[in-house]
Amino acid sequence: MTFLEDLLNDLPELVDRMRRHDVRHVSLKNGAGALALTLTPAPTSNPEQTPPISYPAKAEDTPVPSPEMGVFRSNGLDETHPVRSGEIVGFVEAGPLRLPVTATADGTLGPALVGDGGVVGYHDVLFRIHPDG
Amino acid sequence: MREPAVSVPRRVLIANRGEIALRITRACRLLGLHSIGIHSEADASLAHLRLVDETICIGPAAASGSYLDAARILRAAELTNADIIHPGYGFLSENADFAEAVEQSGRTLAGPTAAIMRLMGDKISAKQQMRRSGVPCLPGTEDALPTDLSEAQTICDAIGYPLIVKAAGGGGGRGMRVVMTAADLRDAIETAREEAGRAFGNPSVYAERFLQHPRHIEIQVLADRQGNAVWLGARDCSIQRRHQKLVEEAPATGIDPLAIAELGERCANACTLMGYTGAGTFEFLYEDGAFSFIEMNTRLQVEHPVTEMTTGIDIVREQLLIAMGEPLSFTQADIRTQGHAIECRINAEDPESFRPAPGKVQSWRAPGGPGVRIDTHLYDGYVVPPNYDSLIAKLIVHGTDRTDALNRMHAALSEMQITGIATTTPLHLRLMNEPGVREGGVSVHYLEALMRKSAP
Asked: For the region Disordered, what residue ranges are annotated (chain A) (predicted)?
C-alpha cells in the first residue's frame, strides 16, 4: 500500500484519538510524502461553569494529582475504567503546555473529580484509583 | 466622607499569604468584591482561604515556586479571571518586572505602575527624584560612585566621614558598609560592590553621610489615579533588629507636629509630581531635628495598622478603590490623627536568639478589650511552616495618649496566649516596661544595644 492509502486507512482512528486527547494539529512526514492535519476545536465548557464534582474518598484509594495548575481536559474514560500505573487518564493545559495526567497505581479509576474544562490547582486530586482484588 | 460608587464587581486575586492575605480578604468582603485566594501546597489551611470566594493552589511550598513565581501568579489570575492583583507586602510587591507583566496582561496591580516602581526601586534615581520634589535627603553622591577608586575617594572625602556606602538596587542591609575613616573607604566600596552584584544583580553603589543615632520615621501616603495625594501622619519604627522592625507606633513622639506636617506635604507633592498611585511610604532617618530620605516603599507596609488606628482610614480598602479607578474619598483637610497607636510584631522566633521557631500552635487565645486589634491568621492547631517569614500576628493597640497605649499593649500582651511554639511575645512584654521605650524617641540602635547588654 502507498503512504496515502495507509494514512486513509488509519485516518478514522487517528482522528478519533486526536479528538479524545483534544489534539488539534498533527504533522506526519516520511520519504513518500507528508500530511498536516488540523481539526476544528471541539466546543469546550466554560471553566467557570464547571463545578467540581465531589465523591467520598476511601482510605485505600490512591489519589491521582494534577501535574500543574491549569485547565483539566477529560480523556473521556468510563467511571469504572481499569488502569495501569503510568497510563494517561487525562490532560491539564498549563499555558501553552498540554501535560498528561497519569495513573499513579494499577486498579480501577474512579470518576473525574473535576469536570472537563474545570480549573485545577497544582497537585489537586483529579481521580482516585481503587485497588483491584 | 462619601461612600464609593462601586457599580461593577471586580475580581481580586490576593497574591500573598498569612495575616496580610486575611487583611486584604476582609477589605474585599467589605467592598463586596469577588476575592481569589492563592496558596502553596504548604499553605492549604491558611485562615483566609475559608473566607475568599475562590481558591487555587499555585505551586509547591518553596516560595520560589509559588508566591515568588510571577508566571504562576499571572496564570492563576488568568485561570480565575482576576482583574485586580493585590500583592500585599514582601514577595513580588515591589518587583517592577512583575508589575509590568501584570500591566501587559491587561490587569491592574493594587499599587503604582512598573515605571514608578523602577524609579523608586533604584536608590540613586529615587534620591534624585526626591531632591527634585523638595524632599530632604542626606548629603551624598548624586549618582553611582565611579568605578575608579581614586575618583570615588575624592567624592567621598568631600561628603565627609563617617559615611555609608549602599547598593543602588538594594535594601535590607545587603551591599551596605559603614566607613568611619577615609582609610577604610576603598575596601568598603569593593566589598559593597561585590555583595550588591551578587544579591541584586546590580553592582552600583552610592555614598551618603552616616548618621550615628538616628530614629526611623516614615510618612504614609495615598494617591489616586486622578492626581490627588494625601499623607496620613508619621510612624516611628526605630525599634528594630538588623533592619527588621519589631515595634512601630504613630504618631512619632517628641517631634514637632508642624515639622511632620511640612514633611508630609512634601511627600504628598512628590507623589503628585511623579504620578504615584496607591499606598506608599517615604522612609526617613531623623537626627538632630532633621529628616533625611532613605527610600520609598511602593507598597502596603506591615505596620500600616497604626496609621489606620490613629486616622480611622482603612488603607487596604482605599488601595482597592484606587485600583478600581475611584478617586480618594477624602481630602487632606479631612484627615485628623487621634490618640496613639502601637504595633508589636509577634514572630514565631526565639525571643533571645531570634531563630525561627516554626511548628504547631497548640492553642491560641487572642487578647481583647477597648483599643485592642489583632491581625493574625492563627488558630488552634495551625502549623507555622518553615518556608516563609516568621510573622504570625500583629498586636495593635490604640490609646488616648502614648502612656495609655503602652499600658494597653502590656495588658494585651499579658493576656495573649500562644502555646506550642516560641514567639517574640516575652521580648515585647519586657520592652513595654523598658525605661527607654517608656520615655520614647529611641534610636534604631536601641534594641540591639539592649540585647547586647542583657546577653549572658
From this structure: 39-79
